[in-house]
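Researcher: Quick test of sequence recovery. Tokens follow.
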């Protein structure tokens, strides 16, 4: 399908096997479009939902902006898990969210990552001296124009008085995972990402954590898409707010925001 192709960067796809369950049509396989930074956790949850309830959940991962625009353009989606509230509000403005169909699901932290073995890079304080911090290298981050991690990163650097100089030395990725892939392949000195993204690459390590007051609170809202609302979709929506989901999300480093149901 055209909406699954490259749009501003790679869309990561991961699908669980479809299971024919008595009384459940194939068309009711749950389509969840989720922020790239949730890849591992949501993949684990799709497997758990399948195992525990016999429901197939097909996952699509990309930048929240890319996914929100796909949904607004008519891409099939039952659920949308965004890395920030703004892109969920974008869908709300298009009247695409079901009644009582949104919840603030997860929290995260903004961090500065570097490659393992890069002893010369020490963290935020060093960024004030660009020659010392970056040398001839670059800062890698999500594009602040549309990637939530990039927006948070720009806010944090502005708060620290570093954005004016660093924006000239930054390379912008189409998603936070795209940015991390660049760093892992040897491009740049630092990458701005989420604390949970550290699990995605064994070759990366934590350099510093940005102060919480340097950027807007990182909130991942979950939405049930109105045009695909069904009993099965609502069941999956509730499952992602339940005790099993809490355990899995916390295993992957997220802060779980709803009360356990």
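Model:
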């Amino acid at each position: 399908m055209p909406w699954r192709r490259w749009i501003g960067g790679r869309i990561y796809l991961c699908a669980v096997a479809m299971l024919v369950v008595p009384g459940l049509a194939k068309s009711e396989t749950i389509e969840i479009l989720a922020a790239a930074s949730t890849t591992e956790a949501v993949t684990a949850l799709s497997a758990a939902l399948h195992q525990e309830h016999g429901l197939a959940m097909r996952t699509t991962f990309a930048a929240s902006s890319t996914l929100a625009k796909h949904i607004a353009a008519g891409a099939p989606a039952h659920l949308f898990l965004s890395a920030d509230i703004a892109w969920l509000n974008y869908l709300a403005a298009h009247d695409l969210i079901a009644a009582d169909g949104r919840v603030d699901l997860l929290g995260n932290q903004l961090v500065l990552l570097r490659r393992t073995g890069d002893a010369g890079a020490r963290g935020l304080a060093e960024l004030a001296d660009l020659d010392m911090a970056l040398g001839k290298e670059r800062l890698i981050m999500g594009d602040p124009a549309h990637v939530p991690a990039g927006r948070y990163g720009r806010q944090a650097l502005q708060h620290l008085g570093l954005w004016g100089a660093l924006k000239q030395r930054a390379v912008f990725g189409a998603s936070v995972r795209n940015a991390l892939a660049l760093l892992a392949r040897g491009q740049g000195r630092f990458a701005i990402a989420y604390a949970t993204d550290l699990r995605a690459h064994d070759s990366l390590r934590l350099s510093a954590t940005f102060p919480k007051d340097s950027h807007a609170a990182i909130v991942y809202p979950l939405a049930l898409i109105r045009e695909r609302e069904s009993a099965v979709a609502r069941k999956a929506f509730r499952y992602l707010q339940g005790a099993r989901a809490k355990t899995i999300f916390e295993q992957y480093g997220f802060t779980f925001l709803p009360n356990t149901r």
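Residues 39-53 form the longest helix (15 residues).
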